## 1
Amino acid sequence: MAATLCVVFALLASLHTCDGKLRFASYYGDHMVLQKSPERAVLWGYGPEGAQVTVSLLGLFKRQASLVTVTNGIWQVTLDPVAAGGPYNVTAKVQNDSATLTDVLFGDIWMCGGQSNMWFNMTQIFNATEELSVVAKYPYVRPFMVALNTSGIELMDLIEVEIPWSVPTASVVEEFSAVCWLFGRYMYETLKYPIGLVESCWGGTPVEVWSSSRALKQCQEVPVVDGPKKNSILWNSMIHPLLNMTIKGDLWYQGEANAEYNQDKYNCSFPAMIDDWRMAFHQGSGGQTAPDFPFGFVQLSTYIKTSKDDGFPNIRWHQTADFGFVPNLRMKKTFMAVALDLPDATSPYGTIHPRDKQDVAYRLTLGARAVAYEEENVPFLGPFPKEIASTQMYVNITYDQAVSVTSSKDIFEVCCSDIWAPCGPKSLWLQTPIVGWDLTTIQVSAAVCQSSEVAAVRYAWRDWPCEFKACPVYSASWILPAPPFIINHSSWKGGIWKSY
């Protein structure tokens, strides 16, 4: 019976054989980072059936050993909390065998997922040579990359590792996600303790392949069983195996694929995926990963300059569960890096792959500092409307913070109606100029509606709304661009619309 169970568990563990040898699971290794206190790191691996495994830490001081029994070929321990720092040696030992991880640090683990803009590596960004030349100055920022593999069932362990845990060098980091590495580097400069970065992403993939069947059922997603968009195919092989890992948070850069695939469901499928990942990582780590761990994402940048298609603006809106900003009531403890002002018309990798990943990563760090680390007085949200007042001649949009404004004839649009019917992306929208502004309010013309009323207003609602760092509305510091919005008079979630 034990042998049969061992075979079953081996299949679920990505076909690792039950040979009775003591070892750690695939994503543990020398130079790794484990989650620091107050959370407790989880370690697991394989061993001889029924054996007693002792796991101990040895560094500046020796940590108390943990004892666990191998069951169905698997052992797992939860360490006592360990403060940030290191290095440690972590040793698992049975009577006649042992396995040791060397140079292990304790810090914060951030996962990085999504599609090609998260996959986009350090050799491809602006100033790549300069950025890679300073990599070795950050020995406590440690990368790890999951290899690209698919599975039709949920696996317990990874099939393959692309980049094992490493002390960063230019040759290692050049193939690593630029957004992920730069975020880790910038966060280390703030936190001054180790950062572990786990990259698990695949270019051209929709959110459905990264979602469990549980999450997809919440959104009435139709099962896809064949082809590259097969539901859950990467959740099974590249996320589910990591669930036992205790993590601090997650970064996500994805959505381009869903601009054409199940676009209308993304306002459900994306927040449902976040909720499901949070539940699964919390349970998989035995309650050590927070049930509401912070989740940061990049709002889509740009693709086709002359496009009249609403795919990208619709996905940008749906990324926020149609609120326009995060965190919100549907997406708590999330943060967003707005990127629509970072187009790259001459990118050799295609305009859908802009090379400025430094600003993307920096904007993510602002959100992480404010939301994940609860640092006070860190602005991370661009201006968003809190009140709209309309007359026959003007629409006054009052923002939730001071704004920096440059003139524009077409970045704002209005939808006109005599019956206050809700306007959507397919309604008739008319471009209208900015006619004035003050510290917090922008005034646009309502004259284009002639005898009817302004029923809705939208901002930056196109694939490529402005040139590089040249959108018309920013925070007072000119650092954070205002996110796009579409707001109806009759159904505004975020504030009060007054008509005179």
Note: The longest helix spans residues 266-284.
## 2
Amino acid sequence: MDWGTDLWDQCDGIDKHTQSGLDLVERYIKFVKERTEVEQSYAKQLRSLSKKYAKRGSKEEQDCKFSNHASFQEILNELNDYAGQRELIAENMMTGICVELTKYLQDIKQERKTHLSDAKKAQQNLEGSFKQLESTKKRFAKEWAEADKATQQAEKIENDLNATRLDVEKAKQHSHARTHTAEECRNDYAAQLQKYNKEQNFFYYSEIPQIFNKLQDMDERRIRRLAEGYCQFSDMEKRVLPIISKCLEGISSAGVKINENQDSILFIEQLKSGFERPGDVEFEDYTQGIKPATSDSSLNPPKVRAKLWPFNKKHKISHAEKHMPPAAEDFSHLPPEQRKKRLQAKIDDITKELQKAQDQSEALEKMKGVYEQNPQMGDPSSLEPQISETAQNIGRLRGELTKYETWLSEAVGGEESSNNINNNTQHGVVTADQSPHIYTEFDDEFDDLEAPLGQCTALYTFEGNSEGTISITEGELLSIMEEDKGDGWMRVLRARGEEGYIPSSYVKHTS
């Protein structure tokens, strides 16, 4: 069964049916667009939510040392990655369904217009032929009537006794001419009728069926393409389900790995002072008389008990202590254990700043070397102010580091502190005593002065087909050059020098 055979007389119905099919495609495109807007709005709200509850500030960073606080931060990070996948779904639907179907719709509209135009033209040709047939038919009828009238008139004149022979001959000649004309019109009408029947047969059995079958083929292709679009609606979400599942698994893992006992131990370590509990208050026997005024005892025990930390106990002042800075700077106002922790944290912060300053110094030295080798790239002397400023900053940080190490040594006490500090220096501050001239040697090739922000590992393979993106493979170690700014993308550097953007949810931070 086909349209050309069974629907040969339903041109208007076919016109409405094919238009309805195109309207459905257009309606589906609009539906998917609104779905992408929902996804984008959902992802935006998720990102705002995770950003709102993310920890910020030194106090909150301190809280994140506890597993229950840290796990909540991991959940927020996973939720941010989850939002990235929702954005990816929206992007894929827009490009894979809306854009492609819109282009296909324009093509199929033009094809339908062409087929309907051919059908209309064929109909007009047949109608024109029929009008010509009617015209020849009317002319034949008119001429035949005139010929019959002329014949009757000739017979009447011939039978009239008063008519002359000339009148009779004239009437016969007129009748004969009319009859001849009528015969010619009859032959024209017969020829035109034969032509019209042939054209009508071609129109209904060949031309229109072919056009209607083409429209049927077009509509079936439209249905098949729309069905593929329906499947894409589901498939595009299925593709990111493994990553979404990993995000959800990460949220579950964040809850599972919480260790309440370890959090309690960490809290104790942070706040314990190391002092012994106060001893019993001695009985003061006033029956034996009032004790000398120089006695250390007090008539106001509550005030004595409230003073638990013996920071004002007199002791011999060493030469180093004569030059101690204000209490707030060396944390001497804190209990011993807390003081050591705060000093160590300060040393760690200064060490990080020192390392960053030394990295900057190294980069400037490299740039200076490149400028010296390639003057067209820049003036080496223009870097001198920055190099000088960086060197001064390094010197200041080294002084700060030495100062806090000395205080920590005094807080810990003895040779044990010196060993700990030496070990710490070997692992974290080894670059502090190096000469600033160690960076004069560098690689011959100078690709980028920008220092990486950290390292990450690719969780999945990504094909970077669009402009500005790069391809990565699962398990690959990458350098982070620019963090995710809320749009779901981050800039990374591959080991072989390629740099570009990748989805943030495709990697895991390692440092």
Note: The first helix runs from residue 3 to 6.
## 3
Amino acid sequence: MSEKEAHADTKVNGAKNEEDRPKEAEVACLQDAEQRRDQGPQTRLYKRRWLIVFLFSSYSLCNSFQWIQYGIINNIFMHFYSVDAFTIDWMSMIYMLTYIPFIFPVAWLLDKKGLRVVALAATALNCAGTWVKVLSAKPDLFAVTFFGQFCCSLAQVFILGMPSRIASVWFGSEEVSTACSIGVFGNQLGIAIGFLVPPILVPNVEDKTELAYYISIMFYITAGVATLLFVLVIFVFQERPKLPPTQAQAVARSIPPEEYSYTASILRLLRNKPFILLIITYGLNVGCFYAVGTLLNRMIIEHYPGEEVNAGRIGLTIVIAGMVGSLICGVWLDRTKTYKQTTLAVYFMSLVGMIVYAATLNLGHLWVVFVTAGALGFFMTGYLPLGFEFAVELTYPECEGTSSGLLNCSAQVFGIIFTISQGKIIDTYGTLAGNIFLCVFLLIGTVMTGFIKSDLRRQNANRTAKAAETPDCLNSSTPSPIILQEEKM
């Protein structure tokens, strides 16, 4: 080989080596990324997570159905048990009152014993309450039916704080808000059925013997469903997956039990100013919803006498629209992570919906009430999962059950206050004044929501964990070969 040819061959080989160096560096970098992932906490999604959340939604449905089953046929139960309207209102308000003193011990139990124990307690109490009601279908047994309702209201304490907890323990970071919405979905669907079914199963008849027959049918159906769900929870419901679904959940699991104090957690939450604002605004919004749901029969009957069935259908419209709103909001949060902006927008639209509903209720056209009530429900009920998920973001790594419990406690307190106050205002000044009363507090809540600082701690934890696993040599344009695995049940 001549000197010139040798020189040319050396240049070609040198150029090839220069081309190969970036590829070799990229391969080494990717191998480094995989090694970091192997050394860090493993995460995995299990298909069983969908069974868990749907089973929870089912027993939440059964419980929330009973919250409104008396109130939506208020006049019928007044006649059957020979009690006044305010007494029947307490069949709904007992759900709110029971929650307040029991939420803290139940949240402690969720922290210490986990999801399965709380699920078993919830379904056992709900099942027991339904069978007590079966025994109460006689005109002189109002005290018995009230005790049955108390048992069901106690079961609710074990239910309301669980959607965000289940979502965090079982679901990935890109689906956690959707999962929370599905958990809330069951509660809303139960309320919807509670608005629809009792007016159909229990017609307004004068004969109390005949009325007792119809009421007992409703109670037996509820008891059968509650018993089936209790059995399913015993054999199907699982505490948590073997491997955590997200890096944030892996970090939360790594905290030793001896380093966690429930009292200290509560105190940290109460010092969290954005969360305190959310507690108040959530309570104002959901308290208004509780008042509207409890007093709906009285408001509709005042303007549309004899329309008990349509009052139930209007309640159904409110909740079905809210279920759609909940799912849309959950999917939207998973895609955009715009927690504060979405919460503020939905809160403001709840205020607008309440104003329109109040202004059109007395126009004399039921179809208008259906439309305005549906719009109100879409935003007011759709707000529920937003509050849960925003709270988890603001309070991470505190237990989701504790933050949700404080939100629900606020909602129950405001629910009792608003229901009693609006009921008295309606009796004295009419439905328009009662609804304006709620509009004022929704306006206050909207303004306060604007002052909540958006500190998304859970999202930041997930981003930090991912950044720690990714070497500096990998830029955003290099696709990561590491994916979240999904296992069979």
Note: The longest helix spans residues 3-39.
## 4
Amino acid sequence: MTAEKQDSGGSRDVFVEDEVHQIQYKTLSWQAVSLLMIAEIVSNGILSLPSALAVVGIVPAVILIVFLGIFGLYTAKLLIDFKLNHPNVHTMGDAGYIMSGPVAREVLAFGTVAFAVFGSGSELLSSQQALSTLSNQGMCSMYLVIITGAAAFLISLPRTLDRLAWMGLVSAAVITLAGFIAMIGAGANPVPGRSLTITASSNFFDAFLAVTNPVGTFLCLWLTSDRFFILISEMRRPQDAMKAAWCLQVFATVFYAVFSIVMYVYIGNTVQSPALFSLPPAWAKATFGIALANFLFSAGLYTHTAAKLVFIRIFRHSEHVYSHTLLGWTVWTLLCFTGVAVAAILAIAVPIFSYLIGIAAALFAAWYTYGLAGFFWLYDVYHLKGGVDGMRRRPIGTTIAVLTIIAGAFICVAGTYVSIKLIVGAYANGQVGRPFVC
């Protein structure tokens, strides 16, 4: 068996613990993982939720939020079990290699990096919107993206995630505080004569658009397994990962539901996306000013995970991973810089960037968050618990796993169709914006 096969398909842990190593990776507690995930997942996407309620209605939206929260917790369990059974798995690419070989590894690894870069670009745009609001549009948007990109680059530079844990605590606290400030602002300034939709009859395109765009509103708001693999790999006790998943999912589901309902009830069907633009200027500035730290940290964390995937792929089990070598730090710095630079260029120069995020969410998040978890369960039952007979002895688990795969496929196909149709319609109607020009 080759060394590559052992690394990608064997049982050797991706990070080897040794006291002589200068850089120690397995240092995260489950509490730190919870904070890092909350800081990243409960971020700018939440600001689009209230506008989705105007399309699908309060009742269907809340049902969908709760259902996807429970569904995300279930798929997290399947993901964690797969990681514990295969400690060598560091990314979705490693998981794909185990199940289907090198082609699947490259496709899933590319998807992870691409989605992380798109996520970083989305956070940079949110940071730019925050700074523009705070400065009364007094500075060129392109310069603001560059400034926020520089901050995200510095945040992404620490080599291990435990060095980012304290920022995760601050980031999770500020996005929660920003949400409460926004709700107070909406409650103190309700829109007169506002109209609300309790339930709505809508065509497929509009309804699916509401739950997938912008920024994959509902798709990306829950646990995305590409980054969770990386986080679990740096935990002291990977067996505690489910505690982190519970903490994230319960907090996120409750917070999403409360925030979206309160904002929508006080603003009504005229609520904008992001919802903070519907607040009076003073409240919008206060909320954006508080949330800015979260946007920057999330951009840095997205970049860090993308760089970590490539870095470990190049240097897995080498001295450059565990020691402060010149080559190791040079490559790591270049990877972080490249990730932020590409994200900033996409955000600045691509006029349909927000639509592309919707496509990326449909193509990758649908599978990473939901669909692939079903394959994980089927693979491990087949190979570790008796093959086809093992599946037959577990009819409920097998059925749910198959339905999970079908759900991921449906969201992927339907979300891609809706996003492409949206782009075509925007071009046809002349609604595509221009790149930032000062």
Note: Residues 1-9 have pLDDT under 50 and may be disordered.
